[in-house]
């Protein structure tokens, strides 16, 4: 075997006397040196060893010793014992002899999780046993044996001592990297100070300790101290498990407890020890000068630590909440907050769907624990749609719900459609952030972010051809539980994501690729279907386009109007084109990513609406305005001409009780045939007008006879009935200077009309009134009363002279 001895290290190979004889020989010089019981190696060079037995590891043990003297030089650093290739399968004992000035102590600091003291005869789980020895005037004393993983973080030993590490031959060396430093001034009577950092536990935590040299007697007239660091919100209790009291020749055995406020409590071995104390405490054991013919001082005790607060208990039942699970995580810096599930303390807790769990929160502020929940919807939503709402959680949970996530799974060859119940969505982008109370984060099942959305925007629908998750945050779920989105299925789409948007005239629309600004997924496409009104066109500008270095295929940007097969705009990553264009109608914007070797692909597109300018409409409007002016002039001329003609005519009228006065000269109604004589009546056949209303046919016959006698070529003014005994109503001539319409009724008589005013006195009026007459154009008779006949003949009147055209 060959190996190199480290400088400052001594290797001693010793044969177990109970084992068979075997020689070990060193072949460094020309003449090998053989030893039967022990061989010491000190040279820092390659060494060759020969053994006379086939399995020397069963016969010999190896001691690897190193001295560290800190009396004249400063000592600080890690102590690590490297594995020696010369003795990997031997029982090994590593030894460090430590020495500092007589008035000081050397300090050993152990990394987390620290060391644990064990009683004599107990073995460590990894079979790496550490032993610390102090050298007193009376001889060496074992302070204690320790294993990895415990509450002891620091040990201070006065003047000089030794640290040992025992490793069996069938174990690979896995040493503990502890630190060595020179400690403070110490009392000459103090042999060691042990620093215990007691751990925090939900229930009682017990740690066992023993005095130096246990189970042998503690050295006479010596002091040993334990410094217990008790975490906040914890109580400690000291209990003596076993002890022996010596016969003191000088002084007494004492136990002292010193608190942080310098308050000292002195007790004996038989006094009750502290219970439910709080804060850090130093415990010191003082021995007296004993009668060595009798048993000396020994002490074994336990320090228990328990929480002083009262936990908040909550039993969560998710068996009746289909697909719902809970997650709790410590996010605060409070070291005293502890939460557990089923009495197991954890930093993160997950309550699976369909299960029950007993939760406990001890000294946990609500803001230090983040509660999130999720619901796996799967494929339960349908084509009609499912509204995403937050179910009510168990009321015993002390902290508010931070966020809620819905997990959506699409069927084969399907697409998930996301729509806002309020009508539209808005993507959170620079300059258009979602500042409202609710924010919805949409991501694919692998965590790839699609974007953050809120309500009241331009996005009418988001279609994703993948399983997605929707997370609602930034809301008091105790007051608002939704609905937040309407989710439904649709047919499979060719793109990964499709946005359906309707821009507004008031604000420019920003369209960003998914996961902006990090970039799109490789080899995927995304599209926007932009719907425009017929009155608007769109100015499209590509504000920020990041192009990667493509390994396969190309990136692409395409713009195409809906219904057209030709592209208006197209650009790849290796092409340079203008980034602005005007689109006259609704269009389709498509972006595709390549398989990038370097960089990523992403873009932000700005869409601004502009009103269209219609030249044909303007021309038609001008032409229409000119035609309207000409028409107005023609009407004015026509009216003027007719007024002059009307002044030349003799106006007449007929009077009908409680009816309308019709005078032909007023010309209330325009004639479409004013240029010919088709409107001039030669005679009026009264039987054709009123005959069907009269039950007596003789009246119609008499009327027909009267009209057969005289033919005239113009309308004749009614002169009254043929009965000569009745007065004739003669209307006064119209004032030619007042050609205007005069209302028949005064405003005050509008709702209760009285008898119409006539130009004749009451005594000259007709002697009767036919009550069956009403105000209608045909003068329809009522069926009650007697009929008074009225002649509409112009026989007794002279015909008016013809009017010259």
Automatic annotation (TrEMBL):
The chain crosses the membrane at residues 615-639. InterPro entries: CDCP1, CDCP1_CUB_3rd_6th, CUB_CDCP1_1st, CUB_CDCP1_2nd_5th. Residues 78-183, 390-472 form the CDCP1 second and fifth CUB domain. The keyword Transmembrane applies. Residues 205-297, 495-607 form the CDCP1 third and sixth CUB domain. Keywords: Membrane, Transmembrane, Transmembrane helix. Residues 6-70 form the CDCP1 first CUB domain. Pfam families: CDCP1_CUB_6 (PF23665), CUB_CDCP1_1 (PF23667), CUB_CDCP1_2 (PF23668). The keyword Disulfide bond does not apply. This is CUB domain containing protein 1. It comes from Myripristis murdjan (pinecone soldierfish). The lineage of its organism: Eukaryota, Metazoa, Chordata, Craniata, Vertebrata. The gene is CDCP1.
